[in-house]
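Let's sit down with a protein and look at its sequence and fold side by side. Please make up or recall a protein chain and show it to me in full. Label the sequence line and the structure token line clearly, so we can match residues to local backbone shapes. Go ahead whenever you are ready, and we will take it from there.
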Amino acid sequence: MREPDPDGRPLRAYKDPSYKPLCKSLAEVRANIDRLDDEIVALLAQRAMYVKDAARFKKDAFQVSAPARQAEVFAKVRALATRHNRGFEGLEDVVEAAYRALVAAFIAAEQQYHDDMTSTEDGDA
């Protein structure tokens, strides 16, 4: 097998007559995905800095992992996926799985930042 021709014609069609194609070629699909990936990574970089800042407000590893907050985030992103879904079956599951991996990686990084910090006597940092 070989990769599909990025400039070739579509080889399959959805049975749903209401489906509206977004692009004329696989190359156009990929260009749009690449554009979105750039935006997503830029937003993740911003999110990362808030995660880093959050470490200043936590006293121990339990507070860094914040299981109740994790549950809130997963419920929130599932709801956001429902709100933003434009016809992708199972989007909520994809978004939750992505966020579970994302949150686990951010918690690991935040824990390293937390471990490398000094405690303040008056609570100010």
About this structure: The first helix runs from residue 26 to 54. The chain has four helices and no strands. The mean pLDDT is 95.
